[in-house]
Amino acid sequence: MERHFIKELDDLKMTLLNMAALTRRAFEKATQAYLNRDEALARSVVEGDREINNLELKIDQIVLKLLALEQPMARDLRFILGATKISKELERIADQAVNIAERSLFLCQHPPLDHLPAMDQLIEVADAMLDAAITSFVEENTQKAIRIRQMDDIADKYTLEVLQTLIDKMVKSTPGAEKRILNTRRAVQTIIISRCLERVGDLATNIGEHVAFIVEAINIKHQKIDFDE
Q: What's the rounded Cα separation, in Å, for the pair 94 and 149?
């Protein structure tokens, strides 16, 4: 029975790691589709979402089986509960990648907006947060998991900067009604992408919190962390 239990736990971990890898790839493809105005890449993100959803369902099935038949305790129980929570965060991140891809498809149909340095920085920070979240799980590194929170303030700063820049551009848009409408639509779609990126950072922060719970049985949600300690 113990050998079977260990095999089921390994299967759960490998499935979660596979889901994490696919989610990370979907996010990378979505941001590259936006940056490079690549319609084919954007469509591949949308089409690949079903595989990630199926992995979430598989994880739910494994977790229910383990809880019903094995009666896990201590670290094993925390891992099982944490795995199902992490899979939910990954599925939501994949959804944000789809949202970014869909907005990028619209933007690809129209002339590009002026370059937004803050958007480049936001993509970089969100990507680093997601990478840190997945790495903290693989390495069981609580400190790395907790420090994702520090990057969240930076992501919020760049999101606000993108919003302010695009609002200014909409206000100063040319008088022609048709062109003004198009400029506004492009700006709104870009703002939505920035909010999706910010949301990815939030979800990565959540994954870090789940890792801290699994590894050290501590709940850091809604707690102020002193990063100097």
A: 20
Contact of 4 with 177, CB cutoff 8 Å: no
Domain range enclosing 169: 2-216
Between 177-216 and 148-171, two packed helices, what is the crossing angle to 10 degrees? 170
In a domain, 225, yes or no: no
For 91, residues 6+ apart whose C-beta sits below 8 A from its C-beta are 19, 23, 52, 53, 56
CATH of the domain at 30: 1.20.58.220
Answer for the pair 188, 199: CB distance below 8 angstroms, yes or no: no
Structurally, the chain folds into a number of domains equal to 1
Instruction: Tell me the C-alpha distance between 200 and 181, whole Å.
Output: 29
pLDDT one digit per residue (tens) for the chain, 229 residues: 577 788 899 999 999 999 999 999 999 999 999 999 999 999 999 999 999 999 999 999 999 999 888 778 888 999 999 999 999 999 999 999 999 999 999 999 999 989 999 999 999 999 999 999 999 999 999 999 999 999 999 999 999 999 999 998 887 766 666 677 888 899 999 999 999 999 999 999 999 999 999 999 887 776 665 545 4
DSSP assignment of 106-150, as one string? HHHTSPPPPP-HHHHHHHHHHHHHHHHHHHHHHHT-HHHHHTHHH
Residue 222 resides in a domain: no
Let me know if residue 186 belongs to a domain: yes
Tokens encoding 51: 């595989």
